[in-house]
Design goal:
- This protein has a single domain, classed as Alpha/beta knot (3-Layer(aba) Sandwich).
- The chain is α/β, with parallel strands linked by helices.
- The two termini are about 25 Å apart.
Length: about 150
């Protein structure tokens, strides 16, 4: 299985890039992993969401399942996420995860998603959400392999 993470904007602060690179490297031991950072829309509100959704969908592969991150999505434990990753592996499809821009994700894109995940009911900066997600993906594969990173 290949996992791609599509998101908007770059971490100009540098606060998260080193940790993100570390977890992306760890995750790549288990699956092919790629991150693509798209430029954020210059529009505002619903127009920004619609424009970004159009650009995201252009990057979606024909054999990729779409999972979206949204604060209104489903909360799940690390073990539950690992179970969803295992089911996705068994499906034979690659996985594309999307994190919207500052305005969030368009409703049409959310409805097209196979799974909508919330990392927290709290609002997280997009760069931090990206780091938390990649760490949780890595943790999920450690859980699936019963490796000691995740304490059972």
């Amino acid at each position: 299985m290949k996992i791609r993470l599509l998101s908007f904007g770059k971490d100009k602060s540098g606060l998260f890039s080193e940790a993100l690179a570390e977890y992306a490297q760890r995750l790549s031991r288990y699956v092919a992993f790629e991150m693509l950072e798209l430029p954020a829309s210059r529009l505002q509100g619903a127009l920004a969401k619609s424009e970004e959704a159009g650009r995201l969908l252009k990057h979606l592969g024909a054999r990729e399942a779409l999972w979206a991150l949204d604060e209104g999505g489903q909360l799940c434990s690390s073990v539950e996420l690992a179970g969803k990753l295992k089911a996705q592996q068994m499906s034979g499809q690659n996985l594309c995860l999307v994190i919207g821009g500052d305005e969030g994700l368009d409703a049409a894109l959310l409805s097209r998603s196979r799974f909508v995940l919330s990392l927290s009911r709290m609002t997280l900066p997009h760069r931090m959400a990206r780091l938390v997600l990649v760490e949780q993906l890595y943790r999920g594969f450690c859980i699936l392999r019963a490796e000691p990173y995740h304490r059972f």
